[in-house]
Structures are given as C-alpha cells and as structure tokens.
Amino acid sequence: MWRLLLPALALLFAFGLDARLCRAATADDDSAEAKARRVEQIQRALKAAAPPVPNRRQISAGSGFFVATERVLTNRHVVEGCPAITTEGADGDTLVADVAAVDPDHDLALVRTMRPAPAVARFSIAPRYVKGDMIAVVGYPDQGLQRIVPFVTSGSMLGVDGRDPTHSRFAVSADVRHGDSGGPVLNVLGRVIGVINAKVDTVKVYQKTGKVVDDIGLGIANVAVLDFLRHSGVEVTQDEGDKPLDDRALLTELRPVMVRIACWK
Q1: Would you call 107 a catalytic residue per the annotation?
Q2: Are 169 and 152 in contact (CB under 8 A)?
Q3: Suppose 141 and one of 44, 75, 130, 177 were both cysteines; which one would form an S-S bond, judging by CB atoms 3.0 to 4.6 Å apart?
Q4: Beta bridge partners of 96
C-alpha cells in the first residue's frame, strides 16, 4: 500500500538529506527476533483457517494506534477504498471496524472500533523537530511476511519541510517499510510527535537524480495531527516523559496502544 507522495522528491532536497544514510537498528536481539517470528508463524496459520470477514480476502494491512477509547488513528490511504476493515489489538482478537473521519490533505483517518482501548498514546506537549534527534517508529512492517505483533524501528530526525509555513510534514532516517503506515513516530521519551505515512522510493530517486538515498520515511507532524483529532472530537493525552526509553521499553509501553489494521475486499 506504500505510495510515494508526489512532493516526496522535492522534500528530499528541502530537507537537505545526506545520501549516505545507514539502516536503523532494531530493538530485538537475534534470538528474541527468531522466537517472535516462530510465534507469529504459528498464530498466522491458526488465523488463516477462519477469516474474520466472510467471503472477502485481505489485500493490505497497515498500522494504527489508540488515541481514545474505541478510536484509532491511522493514515487515510490505509483504509481508503476498503469495503471492510478489521482491527487487531494486543489481545489478538480481530474485530470489524469503520472509518469515523478523514483528513485527505494530511493523509489521516480516525477508525471507530468496538475494541475498548487498553491504553492510549501520549502526545508530546511541544515537539521539537531537530535534525539528528533520535526517534522511533512503531508499526507492523512487512519483513517478508506482514508482522502481526508491533515492532520498533529506531532512527533519527531529518527535519521539517521549511517551505511549508505550517510545518506539517517531516522526514526521518529510518528503515520504514510497507505496513508501518499509520504508526506513531515517537521521541526518546516515548511521546508521539507525528504519524508515519510514506517512504522515499529509492529506485525512483536514483532514476531521476543518480543519487542513492535509502531509508527515508515521511511523516505528518503533530501540528496537523492534533488539529485533526480536535476537530474530530478527540481529546488526547499530552505530557512529557520522565526519562529516555530504549527500544524495548518503548515497545513495552506502546504494545497495548498499537492496532494492526487490515483492508478486505
């Protein structure tokens, strides 16, 4: 479902990106990752026997996170054109959901689910988008198989688009993948500073510029996210964390907040 946004190439140069960016580190060590993959494969096989939406097949999946009880924030393109939508939370149950509101200008959507929120995301009070600051993206990236448990991808901030007076978009250096769309971007204190929604297409950039630019993700900043939620009647929780969190601590805190969103046709 990943799509390269039309202004992505222009953003590439607006952010002053360095073509020599490395891949982000992940939270899990090899043994823990291997164990998690085996558990996922077993769970996937069990769920495949009984599709949650009869007479339809899953065509794509993305990420979302609770911002209020029974309300999940994601990208518009994750749910756009889907005759049926399901959400799967930390409890492993899959429930049918629907779209409550959309912001087409910023690729945001609010999903209504009958799943009570076990926890809600906490947003930064005054996020700073400083180049080089460490960030993390939490989602369900496609790593050969679509993950069915959330995963943390570490990275760093590249900055906001200085051409936009609203500063509603930013770029990060991180191994963002298909499936991460709609997941939160967090600061080191574990507070949401935006929503990931795209990645720069390495092949297309190389074809147009001759430069190799890898692992660049694009996100929607809180200035747009919070405005959308406010107009949708959602009051979010805002505060600043007590101390920096490593990737494992971030995953522990965010796992009950995360939701896997599937599109069925």
Answers
A1: yes
A2: no
A3: 177
A4: 86
Token pair 């198989």 is found at 145
Does the active-site annotation cover 156? no
DSSP H or E stretch at residue 197: strand 192-199
| pLDDT per position as a tens digit, 149-162 | 999 999 999 998 76
pLDDT confidence of residue 47: 58
CB 238 within 8 A of CB 125: yes
Structure tokens belonging to residue 90: 């930390």
Q: From the candidates 63, 124, 168, 181, which is the catalytic residue?
A: 181
The residue with tokens 């009984």 is 50
Verify whether residue 103 is a known catalytic residue. no
Q: Say which of 107, 175, 201, 215 is annotated catalytic.
A: 107
CA distance 129 to 131: 7
Q: Span 74-100, mean pLDDT?
A: 94
Nearest CA to 109 among 200, 258, 237, 232?
232
Tally of CA atoms within 13 A in the half-sphere of 57 that contains its CB: 1
Nearest CA-CA partner of 63 in 145, 181, 218:
181
Query: Rounded CA gap, 54 and 57, in Å?
Result: 8
Please give the full DSSP string across 221-253, using - where no structure is assigned. Answer: EHHHHHHHHHHTT-PPEE---SS---HHHHHHH
pLDDT in tens, 103-150: 999 999 999 999 899 999 999 998 888 999 999 999 999 877 778 899
Nearest to 70, CA basis, from 230, 226, 259, 252: 259
Both tokens assigned to 73: 């924030």
pLDDT at 249 over 90: yes
Q: Which of 60, 63, 77, 232 is catalytic?
A: 77
The answer to whether the beta carbons of residues 108 and 228 sit under 8 Å apart is yes
pTM (two decimals): 0.81
